Amino acid sequence: MNIHTDPGNFQTVKIIIASNISGTQLKFVERKHEDKVVPYLSHNVLPVLEVYPNKFLFSPNSAVRYLLPEDDIIVEQWLEWESSQLQPVLFPYLLAAVGHNKVETDLLNRITKITQSISTLELKGKQYLSKVGLSSADVVVWSSLYPILTPGKGCIKDWEKQYPNIKSWFEALSQTQPFQSGLDFVYKGSGTDALKSSLLAQRPSLQLPKDQVKMQSTEAAKKVSKPSKAADTTQAEEQQSVPEKAVTPEELKAAANAWKTGKCLKPVERVHPILPQEGKRNIMITSALPYVNNVPHLGNIIGCVLSADVFSRFCRLMNYNCLYICGTDEYGTATETKAIEEGLTPKQICDKYNKIHQEIYKWFNIDFDFFGRTTTSQQTSISQDIFWKLYKRNYIMKDSIEQLKCDKCDRFLADRFVEGTCPLCSYDDARGDQCDACGKLINAIDLKQPKCKLCKSSPSVKATQHLFLDLPKIEPELKAHLDNVFSTGTWTNNSKVITSSWIRDGLKPRCISRDLKWGTPVPLEGYTDKVFYVWFDAPIGYISITANYTDKWEQWWKNPKQVEMYNFLGKDNVPFHSVIFPCTLLGADDNFSIVNHMIATEYLNYEDGKFSKSRGSGIFGDHAKDTGIPADIYRFYLLFVRPESQDSAFSWDDFLLKNNSELLNNLGNFINRALMFVSNNFKGEIQKMVLNDDDNQLLALINRELHAYLDNMKDAKLRDALKIVLNISRLGNQFMQANKPWVLVKGSETEKARAGTVVSLSANIACLLSVLLQPFMPVTKLKKKFHGKPAPVPAKGGSKNAKETALNGPVSAEAVAKLTEEVAKQGNVVRELKAKKAEKSLIDAEVAKLLDLKKKLAAAEGKDPNADSGSSKKKVKKSEAAKPSSGVSKPVAETGGAQDSQEEIDRLTNEVTKQGNKVRDLKTNKSEKSVIDAEVAKLLDLKKQLAVAQGQDPEAITGGGKKKGKKK
Q1: Region annotation Disordered: residue ranges (predicted)?
Q2: Which of 577, 656, 700, 715 is the most exposed, having the fewest neighbouring CB atoms within 10 Å of its CB?
């Protein structure tokens, strides 16, 4: 491997240290600061690690991760934090350390927060580091901090006294040979001038990553906080509005042309069975087969089936010819274990849980083209056929292995039938295949104090014959395939890193048989009492499930030139899909379609821990619907916090926040205002639109966002695509607020016409949003329809993708406020009956229906459904927080119309601002406490009035406008 770097580059230190620790030999290639090593990058980036000829890692952290492969949550979090948040803020200090500029006071305050966060690393990582030793997180963070913390050279004075934990951690690493050697290599003989020169040359590349630049404003990018489970959804992202980059004349022209000439493509009707078509983009989408022996939790759902569902729905909108298949993985030890626990046969367990899985996915609106199972005759015949092809080509080896045997049960124990103490971290409840504490893969015979899970007796080690897949023989073919798909396909960073770490040191033969009864039988003489190991057998389930869907399955699975294969999975399943299964298909040499694109998520945790059925921790699929929250609301939040680049967490407090701030106040508010205004003031008819420069600016900005949406969806960056939808909604809200159509509509004819343009353009944006949102929230429908001929949906074209996209959909679209509309409708029914003086019994019956609807609405909004309508709303206990807001907007009809409601909101907003300034002046002038308290009381009352006008809970308002802390 070659390392290309310039003299004095501080980023090179971490790579050299990592190579020293791993014992990897690197060839040094000295470059000038301006040298461009990676040809496809827009600007020069150094250092660069050349892994293979012309195969580069140009992120220093990725290079360290490659040289020091680990599979640990803490490490991943800190690497992500260092690159996305620490580096951009440290840049001024690095320059200050070499005397280029001075450090301002506010930046010194910010470095205090940084060092506090790093002290958290040392404290939280202590237990982890004591078990597994030095990590790549240590290497990366230490290397970045070295220039500013080095005694006598750094710019943070007396930091050692202030942060003793950091000091001990920093000095301990500084004294080790790998770190000293790394420093000598980069800095020895080059001095401060070389470091300064390198820093100045790096200035363009030491900014936020591209995806964060799009999502964060300049000011927000300066904020730093410690990494956390939910670091993917920072406050900075929530508060960001629109891109700051000025609109170019080309963008204006493209948007104007798209508005005038764009045509909507009609979605293609789906006729089953769906088969590959000549001249079409044919996409096979699979999500990792869920184990049949448990109920899926929200982490399982977002990691596999939900992510694949969103991508599949997007492909259908794009008129791609796609097939989405999945099913339950039903063979193996886990099923046998569950059957024993529940006193059922393995077949009964599979039947029971396959039904549960299907019901859960149906409730979550997961739209499989076919959902099957692996316990079928097709699974047996296809698996055995692939095995014979491998066997005849000499890719199957026979060997004896030592395995644990329980004499009391008279059986060899498969991995999950063994429990004991982990040999790596001493966790006393490790399984025979993996330790849940440290996450490492282990062999059952390596467990300390092993116990048979069935009878709790101690097994003995005995030899048994098994079959192995000769991976080393197939490795050259696999590398050639990976070289191709890594450069041409869509692979998440974790899938690339994990795959590369597996093949870096060479593949080893892999056992593919087990001493079990429940599984696909091994057909080879002498081994017929065994079954195939689940990780040889289970991925073949994708093929057999397709074969159960259509007898023409080979058109999908033996057609690599026409079919693209997308795998959606969690990161723990990557090596089986990127190494084992591809080797199986390559070795069979039967023209199989092999994965081109691999989309792997990190882990979704629950609150402060992990999902755990046994501990009652987390939300599981069969309980989600019992909360009364619509499935689309869960989908929205899970996709908003989707763990794309690092672990994230499901948090009820954050769930409430995102649904209120994003779904209700941002998206729901804009759509409701736009459509209700057209309905109430223009009889539901789209008006003639005369666009001015501001309108064209808006179209250009939306067009820009739509391009980004398409790019992100095609790369399966679903979380980023959803946030772009919310960006468009923010643009719409800002447009409405700036133009105030509720004021214009009361003015002259010219002003009324302008109001018609504003709200009609906004209604079109709302319709565009409904289509963009459809893959994420497919059931949430916009009920509003327009009379007359609608204007075309804006911002759909102006790009090379204009002709292939069907993203513009029908103008009558989907609805955010279903329950609210039902309440309003039922309220009208009651009022009409009372006006007509209908029979009391009839009125009472309709009132009962209205009350029931209001209770459902209250439950969806996280309020007490049994509270009296006239009394103040009760707070929801944290344990009852399973009733967060459904994102339903307050019906405008109940507040006198959209324009009147907005006028009241504007009036109260101004009053709150004035009163707030008055309170601040009194406090600044140190007025009497009684005077200040009286004015604060007025401020709180105004804030409560404003909260009511905005459809929020007025009791959530407390001093200073802050929300109350934990709910009691």
Answers
A1: 210-248, 785-805, 860-927, 947-968
A2: 715
Query: 759 and 726 in contact (C-beta within 8 Å)?
Result: no
Tokens of 412: 């060899």
- Reported as a single tens digit per residue, the pLDDT across 315-331 is 999 999 999 999 999 99
The crossing angle, in degrees rounded to 10, of helices 136-149 and 105-124 is 150
Task: Please state, in angstroms and rounded to a whole number, the distance separating the CA atoms of residues 477 and 479.
Answer: 5
Please name the amino acid found at residue 223.
Answer: K
How many CB atoms within 10 Å of residue 410? 7
Pairing outcome for strands 418-421 and 448-452? antiparallel
Element (H, E) at 403: strand 396-406
Q: Label residue 160 left, alpha or beta by phi (over 0 means left) and psi (-120 to 50 means alpha).
A: alpha
Q: Give the HSE-up count for residue 301: Cα atoms under 13 Å, Cβ half-sphere.
A: 29
C-alpha 338/C-alpha 320 separation (Å) is: 40
Does the global pTM surpass 0.90? no
How far, in Å, CA of 370 to CA of 845, rounded? 44
Q: What are the residue boundaries of the structural domains of the chain, listed by start?
A: 2-228, 279-395+470-515+529-601, 648-816, 896-968
The answer to whether 60 and 14 have CB atoms below 8 angstroms apart is yes
pLDDT tens string 723-771: 999 999 999 999 999 999 999 999 999 999 999 999 999 998 998 898 8
**Where do we find the tokens 């353009």?**
761
Fold of 648-816: Isoleucyl-tRNA Synthetase; Domain 1 (1.10.730)
What is the C-alpha to C-alpha distance for residues 661 and 669, in angstroms, rounded to an integer? 10
CB-side neighbour CA atoms (13 Å) of 202: 29
**Which stretches within 775-897 are classed as H helix?**
818-835, 840-860
In angstroms, the CA 283 to CA 322 distance is 4
Class of the CATH-defined domain 896-968: mainly alpha
Cis peptide before 273 (omega within 30 of 0): yes
Tokens linked to 306: 């939900």
Residue by residue, DSSP assigns 265-299 as PPPPPP-SSP---TTS-EEEEEEPPPBTTS--BHH
Provide CB contacts within 8 A for 174, sequence distance 6+. Answer: 142, 146, 180
Which numeric CATH code is attached to 279-395+470-515+529-601?
Answer: 3.40.50.620
For residue 960, is pLDDT > 60?
no
**Measured at the alpha carbon of residue 20, what is the angle toward residues 10 and 478, in degrees to the nearest 5?**
100
